[in-house]
Amino acid sequence: MAGLEGKTIGKYRIIERLGRGGMATVYKAYHPSLDRYVAIKMLHGYLAEGENFLERFEQEAQSVATLRHHNIVQVFDFDNDGENYYMVMEFVSGGTLKAKMTHKSGNGGVFSVEESIRIINQIAEALDYAHKKGMIHRDIKPSNVLINEEGEILLTDFGIARILSKGGTQLTATGALIGTPAYMPPEQGRGEKEITPASDIYSLGIIFYELLTGHVPFDADTPMAIIHKHIHSPLPIPHDFQPEFPTPLEKVLLKSLAKDPEDRYQSAREMINAIEKAFSKGEENLSEQTRLSMPKIQETRISAEKPHYTQPVRVSEPPKEQLKSAGKRKVARVFGWGIVGVLFLVGIVIFTWILNYVGVLNFGGFDCATVKECEVQAYILRDQGDLREAKDYLAKAIGMVPEQEHPSHAELWCRMGEMSIALDELDQAVSDFSHCFAWTEDDPGLGWLRKEAGDQLQELNR
What we know:
By secondary structure, the chain is an alpha+beta fold. The chain is built from 19 helices and 8 strands.
């Protein structure tokens, strides 16, 4: 959907492209009669292939347009131009929370407790309002959290995942696009149909964890491996690698990130109250705890403890013999635990091999079977920064496209070229855009894509 800049769609004149994801491309546009800028989210064309998509799109867009909350991006309009379905929303110029987090981590810092709570509480206020209206987001992540010029938090993309989760689109068939692996709750990763507000609470908890620690709790080489960790791996406790982490807030994280939805907070309001209680209850203690190191805390606790013996301790052997005996027992214990450890590792290797063999686990990546599955997986990997593997999936997709489908070939080669540029593989980018350009030659309707490829080639050949 590149190359729309300067064109008019409905009542809106396209100004520039703001971004592109696995589900849609977002543009900044101008509405002349109202004299205001708006954001237009255009869904990718292939998503409309599902049964009754138009009906589902209109129903969900109408529901989203009724949401009126100062922490939710307002939807003004929705329509289609015969080929593309789009939503028109208020334009927020301050950028995304993801961009702010990336900048913060790039400078080696993390968000303060106070700022993290301020951000999370505003997102939770939006969720509490939407959940009471019967709307579950399903894709809470930092890139769906916008920040306006006043520093206020606004949640966007309500309804998009819900539109796509109904009907027979490739999206639902693969499970790849409903949610984002790094922020996906276990039940969503398992493909369960029953999604509740607790699912959004889990994703919100992941963002809270990331704000406070500087990284998400679960990461892996492939999206499927990340999802597997959400389902099966225990949560890494912040206190284990950050001793000064505030204990009251750690309890909030543990509850919001429980594997079982019933063990989490059952509403965003409940989570807000828990956060405020944890912070206000120990505001002085939190600051004191931040100043103390873990060893000092442990030392203080040990010195404060009193023995609880009711009678003298009897020593049955002389000290030297006792030491010698203790040494033997220690060697025996170390040797015994060593054997246990080796057997445990061998068991893990065998168990993992069996799971891979039967197809339960596939740490080698998602095995796409159709063009759309491969394309969807490529965009997920691209958004996560794994451009090389994303290109591999695009290559698989290109290999599956029938020769007569020129638009698909052209679009995929142009996207391949963008990734090659991002990887600084400029010679490969020239080849990719040349392929894109060639596939547009016999199709007048692909003039916009032909222009994109031509512009890129001209820039690369300077």
